[in-house]
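Case study.
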Amino acid sequence: MNVDLLPVLPAIVVVIAAFVVLLAGAFAGSGLRVCRNLSTVGLGAALAVLFVAPTDGNMGGAIQGGAYSAFLQGSILIVAILAVWLAAARLGDDQVQPHEFFTLLLFSVVGMLGLATATEAISLFVALETMSVALYALCAMPRTGPQRQEAAIKYFITGAFSSAFLLFGIALLYGASGSTTLAIMARGVSQGGPLALMGAAFFLVGFLFKVGAAPFHMWAPDVYQGAITPVTAFMAAAVKIAAFGALGRVVAVAIGGLSDSWAPGVALVAAFTMVVGNLGALAQSDLKRLLAFSSVAHAGYMLAGIVGMDGRPEGLEALLFYVATYAITNLGAFGILIAIRRNGQEPAIATDLTGLSRRDPGLAALLTVLLISLTGVPVSVGFVGKFHLFKAAVAAGYSGLAAVGVLMSVVSAFYYLRLVVLMYMEEPEKSTEFRIEPGFVPTIVALAAALTFGLGLFPGPLMALARAAAASLF
Amino acid sequence: MSWFEAAHAGFVQAALAVSAFLFVVGTVGVFIRRNVITVMMCIELMLNAVNLAFVAFSRAHGTIDGQILVFFVFTVAAAEAAVGLAIVIALQRNRQDLDVDSFDLLKG
Amino acid sequence: MGLLSLLILLPLGGALVLALGRGLSDSTIKRFSFGLTLVLFGLSLALLAQLSGFESSAAYRFEERVSWLPQWGISYHLGIDGLSLWLIILSTLLTPISLLGSWTSIDERVREFNIFILILESAMIGVFCALDLFLFYIFWEAMLIPMYFLIGIFGHGRRIYAAVKFFLYTMAGSALMLVAFLVLYREAGTSSFDLPALVRSPIDPGMQMGLFLAFALAFAIKVPMFPFHTWLPDAHVEAPTAGSVILAGVMLKMGGYGFLRLAIPLFPIAAKEAAWAIAFLGVIGIIYGALVSMVQPDLKKLVAYSSVSHLGFVMLGIAAFSPMSVVGASYQMLNHGVSTGALFLMVGMLYERRHTRLISEFGGLKAVMPRFAAVFLLICLSSIAVPGFNGFIGEFLILVGSFTLSPALVFLYTLGVILTAAYQLWLVQRVMFGEVTTPKNANLRDLNAREWATLLPLVFLSLFMGVFSSLFTPSLEKPVMKIIQDARAKTITRAGVAPVLPSSAEPRAETGGDQ
Amino acid sequence: MILDVILFYGAAFVALASGIFVIAQRSPINSAFSLIVTMCSLAVMFAMLGSGFIAVLQVVVYAGAIMVLFLFVIMLLNAKQDEGDRAGGIGRAAIFLGIILAVQSVWVVWNGSASLPTNYKETTSADVARGLFSSPRFLYAFEATSILILSAMVGAIVVARKEKGK
Amino acid sequence: MFTPERIVLWAPWMVLFMPLFGFIVLAFLGGLAKRQGKHQGMMVIATLCTFASFLLTLATVRSLLALPAGDHGLHFVQPMLPLNWIDVAGFTIPMALLIDPLSSTLMLVITGIGFLIHLYSIGYMAHDEERVQYFSYLNLFTFFMLVLVMGGSLALMFVGWEGVGLCSYLLIGFWFKKKSASDAGKKAFIMNRVGDAGLIIGMALAAAQLGTLDLLELSKGVGTMAREEFGVFGPLTLIAIALFIGACGKSAQIPLHVWLPDAMEGPTPVSALIHAATMVTAGVYMVARLGAVYSMSETAMWVVAAVGGVTAFVAATIAIVQNDIKRVLAYSTVSQLGYMFLACGVGAYGVGVFHLVTHAFFKALMFLGSGSVIHALSGEQDMRQMGGLRTRTPWTFWTFTAGWLAIIGTPFLSGYFSKDEILIAAFAHNKFLFGLALLTAGLTAFYMSRLFFMTFTGEYRGNLEKANAHKADDHSGHGHGGHTGIHESPAVMLIPLFILAIGSILAGYLPVPHFVEPAIRVPESLPHLTWMPFLATGVAAMGVWIAFLLYAGSLRDMPAKIAAKYAGVKDLLDAKWGFDNAYDSFVRNGLNGVVDISERVLWKRVDAGWIDGVVNGLGRLAVEFSEGGKLLQNGLVRGSALSILVGAVALLTAVLWAQR
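After joint prediction, the assembly is written out as follows.
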């Protein structure tokens, strides 16, 4: 048996890094900094492998290298590196064994890389579960306070529940086609039939859960709120990339032929998700819940890309572009929460940001840039991304979905702007004291903001990558 | 074809029906049971139902993929159960209550 | 880099300098940005070097085109014709004036204030230059953010409510326009967002109305047309003086500009069908604005509602769609920028002195501040459209040009003319005439040199434009004629019917009142 | 042949019945035992469907190992009985939806399976092994499973470990 | 440069420019001059500017007449600036003047009488704080009035039209601290604005229907069109009537006349210049100017004549019962303007203009005379507080006598000629209007005599101390002199009176109708009725005689008795035929109603309630929805799972459904 390991090389590198971190922590008692640096090196090496090594192989159909996978893997790895650093800034506060934390984080990255590359249902499922199981555990860390475990159990139960649906969907698709390989599945599926339809529907349910689309989203606010902020940031950014990447591939490769059947339903889900996410965020005062609902809303926008695929790569291209840039932007927004200590505490509710611009105009400006992008107002990458998504949806004939999307963006402006109002237009209480995490967190935020703004002006290069990636599946 | 031949030929169909029904039973169980461990068992029941579907399809198509998948489902189920039960243990340690409805710190 | 790019990028560069510059004192910042905006004004005057070109053809000049997102056919495409030319000059003129006008009233967060003004200026110029829908939309939306901050940070009492309302209202308006862009892109089949290319390609008449309405909503809110105007009074009242001046002076013009530049040329058939509704709402706006303005206790609110009224004239002119009326409407947009800008400046001056804007707090100011009173009166006269002032030219052209649309509307229009005079003069009377009733008013300072410097250009312009309109109108006329001719040609060829809106410039002596 | 049929349908019946017992029992212990019964019945069905290897695994791994884990935890935590059937509105809604879903899914598989091919053949553990390892297709998943299990281990340890000093 | 051909091209611009120059100088240097106490110099500059304008007008007219005549025997020039005021889409309004006999006549009146009134004002306003500003307004007014009559197109005419309205507004409200003054100013402006709306519509109609606003072209152009019979509301009729509404506003014709009496709140010279001699005649000028258009529409002619006739009569009756000297004169002005319109309405445009000229002299004279009286009495305007001023202010008395005689139509004085011709024209046209006009002539004689007798003859009835005390209270306003006691005015005020008196006597000998006829392009042929002068004189004499009996003769107690006996009539006249009340109640009820509705309904309900209610309601709805969603998001795992189940079932249903 000749096994071409090149396409799994990045994942292997990350696995090695995970082992090294685990062992270093367990046996050498390495601390936070060492674990952080080791993780970074591992992820960076994986990224380097991605760039250097020709990863275009397929391991007998289990996974597929190439532009699409590389785009997703690259995004995931970059996000993961940033997340590692954000986590490193926060773990000092919490009683967490850093090596365990980073090992789990790296394991979940491995799962994500698998998701991004899998072209076969079994691999896909195993990768998904690898990611999920690690995330369940991450959510429960540290064990201080019942919130964490509550978040974990909620995530676990709903996650397992939806996994069952996903699995049932795979079973039915397998039943309709006789194979678990996506490309072969497509042949059986394209003939239609009730098995294929129900299989596609349940398959979608599983992924719609992972991306946090309504009505499969209700776990998201609770889990986002309950987990520690770096974990939340990592979930909000990286899981979206991996899940949407896999969903996009499945839609493009396996069930695209049935799009007439499921696309209207998904369009409804997308519209519903935009509405629920944005309206849900309106009344939130808790910052992380607000960002959770916001991420639900963004899942809705991204689903417009899925709906807009319709046999053409444009929707997928838009989706890839959006999910990558959204991850960066969102990570930046969470980074702000990590960077700030208000009276020694992480800002938890919106009013904790009151008067930030008076104390730290730079950070306030950065958050404003990020919020503007999340709202989708030019000049920002959020605008370009939404434009792209809705363009695809309109091109596929779903103008109404685009209309809902833009109107809901207006609603989103309300709650994003409220933060800006608080930062810029309200006076802080006299006793309020802001301390900024020194060093790298503001740098990460600045990096995210710079990318957000810069890609808003010059989206061309990244868009070209997304374009090539999407085209490789068609 | 005799009745039992027909019944034999109908194995796949029947197995699938049983699978679908069991899946729904498991699904409903998630909602009507409130002990978190029972809830997890209901999810296991759903997975089992799916396994039956895989095996049935595997038989129908004559491909091995389905069975292999079941093999992986076992592993996944084991892994999930491990982490899930670990969380349950941690929860129990923190709050002495396994009623799913009691986890309501996070809401709104 | 072309002149237009320079006009757009220079203020951005200035904003960047201010944002990154360390240790700049407030007065340095003020001087720097004032100087920069003056330079921009000078640069924009350089556009006039080609005035004869603007007067001789409707072709876009100073065109710049850099491919930006080629896969979507999006390019950084700039260019101006006569219509944009004057609006750009208006923008670059009002910006330094508003900076000068808030020289003393803004004494906190000066750096941010100037940054926002500079960004705003850049975006405003961009809107008037952009010849690519995507680019247009970017500038269009980018304008909102600095204005939002200007209102929200530097405004008065209910500033936050007003800022959020302003932002959401206008963003909601333009949201559907974005979808319409995309549908248009799909329907036109040009594979580009280039405006001239899209204008050339015919759009299915069945699609036009929906798209037109999406565009029209965005522009109607910006204008603002009744009944989409309620953000305006709030935004104006709460905004700082500079914000009000720019908002009223430039940003409201973008609605009318959008109709002329985008909505009508792209969807002429739908525009024709909707003309009566726009005209009707325009006239309602004229009268409604005047009536509501009459009863405002707050000076700024009064001026704000008067804007609703004045822009009703503009919309009527655009809807009538005859060369005269559209030129009149374009001219009226400039006029309104000058006169209402000045009015807001003066209200700001009063506020600076007395910290109130309630009309009942004033009275008899003519005795205390005679020069202020004189300028105030002049500006009011311009606003009333007394001939000799700029307002008259615009309103007269609109009136004559829209006569054939509907005589009944025109009679309502004249009712608006009367009401305008009524509320403006009542305002003058209440504020300027009579005895000084409040002791606090007894020792108010008359205009100082800085305030003179802000007002004189506007007073001068309102007179100059009232007398020498023919220096301005030929360059407005060319693009307007082109828009009208193109639209008519498309209406005929696409729908196979003759235009219902005949040119009013043609003598039609043989018919009676056109019913 | 007849034995097959009887065994199969008998097992199916038992599986359904015990499946319902799983969710109808108030006590977690009872549910667990019912679940084990279900699993064993399913194992019989697997065997009758020609997947002997899976049937064995089902009993050994699933009913044996995993369920023991469950039972162990139930015992460890001394899980109380469910406090009655106060499933409330959510339960009723779920039952309602469950009925719909059951109708739909049974209808789907019933109709769908009518057009399935009938390439029946017995498979042995050798077939499974060949399928699993003869091509790199499943090798990837197989290796990935190791990561899955490892991360589950680490996760379980991390989560369930007692706090130092507590 | 100084050949007639050249002069007519630059001199008119200079005519216009001089008063504008004066205004600019005063406006910009006024403050400085005021601070340095150099009011006198400023006032002289203003006056000289007007005088220069007058001289230039003379030069212009002389040169014009020296030019060869054009068609219809018309001497005209159209000096033009190389610049269009409006030039859009083939519609142009050049900056062109039209100098022909008609405008020349008006220019002479404006600059001539304007100069005299400037001169007079130097004395009258000598002690007012803001006299420099006053003079600047006066100059500005002169400028705009000249624009009005010299403008070559309706649009330019409209510039002047609005400009004089503005100056009128400023000058009426000159003593702006007085509420009544600023109210009157506003009233005048808004009522004019109503008229102007008519004018604007008329212009727009003309522009839209005829394609030009050029006065000459309009006059020529309509010649080719069909005449519109009575009852036909063709475009010309509509244009003419719309324009006439404008004329009514400016020339204070019923029903837009009520502002003029109130306008007497302004300084008296202003009343003389603006509200008697020049501005208020602008309507007459316009109708005459567009005589060719009006003559094409019988309906419009009828309307003009009727409004003129009725106004003449009604205003005259009101004048009978007024006691304020200026108000009598104001109503008299309204009445005389009605005469002029009557003349125009019956096709005798030239005669109308003729009366305009003569009226300018005698009415300006009488206003200035009354100003002199008021000046002498330190601000007293009530005739019941006057009397016997003949001896105390002899020069004023004699000049006033000339004006009085002229207006009542004393043979061979100016009023006699013009009024006679109006009567003849009316007689030839419509017997009813003629009767009304004749009656008005009698009434005019009566009330002017009443004024004359009450003011100058008999005994002084006033209380001088009170007058002085009143003055002391009001020193900021009417700043007449620091003298006490009844006194004659200074020479600078008397000289204009003399000149105007001479004019009042002799102006009737000017061949105005003949002179302006070619400019109007409507041939006038009046019948020669030898009996008419006798009849008119007789009626006038009767009026004088009755007035003499009632106010200077033996029946001085009669007015009160008559008033008591015919209380109804008296009340009607006191109430000014109800117009003022109607306006007041319209303003109070109607306008206040509008204000009220605007405030309560439009602003607070429609705007703040409905529209903003919808806007804010949408926002609130969204937030409510969100709050409701929070309840749903109750944190129960089973709830979250249930929503997944709901979604799964729904999606499955949708997918199965879509396939069907």
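Observations recorded in class. The radius of gyration of chain C is 22 Å. DSSP finds 22 helices and two strands in chain C. We will return to this complex in the next lecture.
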